[in-house]
Write the structure tokens for this entry.
Amino acid sequence: MNVDFWHQKWEKIEIGFHQSKPNLLLVANFNKLKLAEGSRVFLPLCGKTLDIGWLLSNGYHVVGAELSGLAIEQLFDELGLVPDITECGELILYRADKVDIFVGDIFDLSSELIGAVDAIYDRAALVALPEDMRKRYAKHLLEITDSAEQLLITFEYDQSLINGPPFSINSEEVNQHYNAAYNLLLIESKSVEGGLKGVCAATEHIWLLTN
């Protein structure tokens, strides 16, 4: 993971990947995970996504991992929460009511630190990583969450036309990463309005990964 790349994105406020409202695919499909109120949902590489506020407002607990401390400071400020901040080995834990966010390298996060997870919502992690890191990430995610069920969002487009992130990930690759651990169902696909970064046509997919 290019740590400096992501820190510079946040410091320069180059956060076009940050959406101004909760993800519509999340809102329309999260109930398919059939979680009880109070379930704990893990968001890898969460940034300050408004999806966290949506999950909290719907009665879920959120645990996240994010590289940028600046993003998480902004997240808690926008949520109107004052976190307790503690060191956890190589990571820093920001904790408030029903929210636990680990700041640092996600590969330093262990199952012991993260605790029990009922589901994963991956909107911005797999697609943010270059191809040579995605296999390692997927394996690590399964290990630290005990293969918790997932909602996974991916993009598919002509990678030769534009550099990621987000990177293009097709169904074959999703199967390579997760077919051994889950039953995979492509729930919905929709065209990215205006094209990806306004440059090329792209399709956004949402997957349901169940045990």
